[in-house]
Amino acid sequence: MVGRTRNTKSKRATLADVAKLAGVSAITVSRVLNHPDKVSDDLCHRVREAIDTLGYIPNQSASSLASARSQVIGVAIPSLSNVVFNDVLRGIYDVAGAGGYKVLLVDTHYSPIEEENMIRTLLSQSPEAMIVTGGDQTRACQRMLSSAAIPVVQMMEILEEPLDMNIGFSHFQAGFEVAQKLMACGYQRIGFIGARMDTRVQQRMAGFKEALQTQDLYHSELFTTTPSPSSIALGGELLRGLLSTSGGKLDAVFCCNDDLALGALFESQRMHLSVPKDLALCGFNDFETSAFVNPSLSSVHVPRYEMGVQAAQMILNVLKGVPNKEKQVDIGFEIRMRQSTRMASA
Amino acid sequence: MVGRTRNTKSKRATLADVAKLAGVSAITVSRVLNHPDKVSDDLCHRVREAIDTLGYIPNQSASSLASARSQVIGVAIPSLSNVVFNDVLRGIYDVAGAGGYKVLLVDTHYSPIEEENMIRTLLSQSPEAMIVTGGDQTRACQRMLSSAAIPVVQMMEILEEPLDMNIGFSHFQAGFEVAQKLMACGYQRIGFIGARMDTRVQQRMAGFKEALQTQDLYHSELFTTTPSPSSIALGGELLRGLLSTSGGKLDAVFCCNDDLALGALFESQRMHLSVPKDLALCGFNDFETSAFVNPSLSSVHVPRYEMGVQAAQMILNVLKGVPNKEKQVDIGFEIRMRQSTRMASA
DNA sequence: TTGTATGCGTTATCAG
DNA sequence: CTGATAACGCATACAA
């Protein structure tokens, strides 16, 4: 190593280093970076050259400390492996990134306790806003969120009493309408298989059950649930279980998501059950696979990317001082009936 | 604004606030948080109470600035929507989280230019280490990474000249072996469909092609590629295209990933082509779907979660001062032949 | 347009 | 075991 003018031990260059090299004061360098319009073109140019030659990268911690602006948005999702959150995240990242914000992402593993800890960690980074999933945070967690005094969006479902802003759709209503569709198709022995059983899945199931009850078609022995995480393999297992306990008297099954539904479909095929002739299947989330598999799978489509986009936009609006028209947005859903369920009887 | 004793306007509590309430000095509070063993139980207790009643959350920016330890690991992946990276990320998050590190994640959209910008942003957060994808960073980006003087892991593929540490597998070799397997099954008219065509896909294709050439079975007209991102829909389209241009003389297709392969499989079914009788298919990445779809799909299995885990562990080791035995780890792959390709001829 | 002084909340260093 | 003081690197408020 060659001895250099100052940074003896090749430490990261600072504003001061750049300033010295450019022959200006530190604040001028800062301005070139943050308010270029407030600096003469001449200096601006000289400073940029110095920045380049030094490979200067601003220290965001110092900036954050001095300005109380971290440029970070904290995001908490319950699972990194659940593909559902990918699309939402993509929306958030696209909008946040375009707005100059970084995203600090944590995975709460569907546990409110973990969520509380992760959100505490997140808050220690002084995020300028937070996006969290659902509404079952611990009391302590909600207090933290509130006293952080930053915009918060709770996403994925419509909440009775949002902490601040809220975007999502009614899982209860979605479940309810799926049941209506299946009944309209003439199915009588209608079952349900669910996994993970987080709040949103529970609501889907509750809505589904309620609709069945209106027609006296709810049979508790046709409902199977497990706290295990969803997978295609599990979908097959649950279907087999349901078929055996129901004594074969089963003509339609609503699966709480497309993982289970695809598993059930593939398992049906292996058991030489014809879908939808022997058994109708309906999933939830509408994966791309569902539209292309044979027979194609009926499912509930949700504009997830759009939800992420809007969640981030609501945040950016508040951060920019533009008030949102609505603090709560119902993004809706759409039931897509395909080949795995027969046409509604006229 | 009123002159304040301390926080007139419910600002976040600071170390000083906690210290005052507990009747100790700020540094003692700091120690309770970071080196509890160096503080008497009595004080420790009093301080913790004060922390609780104030709902104190440390300011990581200040900590980072003062200690030069950000507790952040930066991660750059090329796509948030590609499921492949989910598993890797899960591994990284699990290990990093357990080690007390946060993960700052960026999506480079498969663009070295974007990657350079995003990594610059990442570096401004003073991460203590970086995990990036592959080796085709821009020169400038590699310089930044090097001069950051932090541990760096390049993952997903084995590199000739890693910047620092490296974990992955040889995509060339994987493609090569897939071709060998197909040829061993007796296929003669072997095609390839590829999308996105990033470095790793190109290597798979190159290996595949080279193996075919050894047996004089490479036919350029049976290779189709597109820069478009992969999807199931695209797999179907590419297969249709290939079938029409090849005049039906095609008996096996290697798809650069399982998205395309599933699309090709579903499309074959709609065209009433029997797989593998009329056409054999092999994918890459081994999604869960591939093992369960009918017919099940041959694919190349890669220990992605494990790769994420090990990448993070290599980082943590360096950070803890424990040297890694290897700076480069070949995590391997495994070709899983299933029903979509016929058995190798004896 | 540019610069000076000051403080952001924490930790390292050194005293006691 | 505990505390005083001085950084850490940058941006705000004010001057020039």
Any overview of this molecule?
2 copies of one chain form a homodimer. Chain A is built from 13 helices and 12 strands. Chain A has 346 residues and is an alpha/beta fold. A 6-stranded parallel β-sheet of chain A has the order 2-1-3-4-5-11, sandwiched between helices. The N and C termini of chain A lie far apart (84 Å). The N terminus of chain A is likely disordered. Chains A and B meet through helix 4, helix 5, strand 2, helix 6 and helix 7 of A and helix 4, helix 5, strand 2, helix 6 and helix 7 of B.
Q: How are the SSEs placed, and which strands pair?
A:
Two copies of one chain form a homodimer.
Chain A: H1 15-22, H2 26-34, H3 41-54, H4 60-67, E1 72-77, H5 84-98, E2 102-107, H6 112-123, E3 129-133, H7 139-147, E4 152-157, E5 165-169, H8 171-184, E6 190-195, H9 199-214, E7 223-226, H10 232-245, E8 252-255, H11 258-270, E9 280-282, H12 288-292, E10 299-301, H13 304-320, E11 328-330, E12 334-336
Parallel strand pairs in A: 1-2, 1-3, 3-4, 4-5, 5-11, 6-7, 6-8, 8-9
Antiparallel strand pairs in A: 10-12
Helix pairs in contact in A: 1-2, 1-3, 5-13, 6-7, 8-9, 10-11
Chain B binds a DNA duplex (16 and 16 nucleotides) through helix 2 and helix 4.
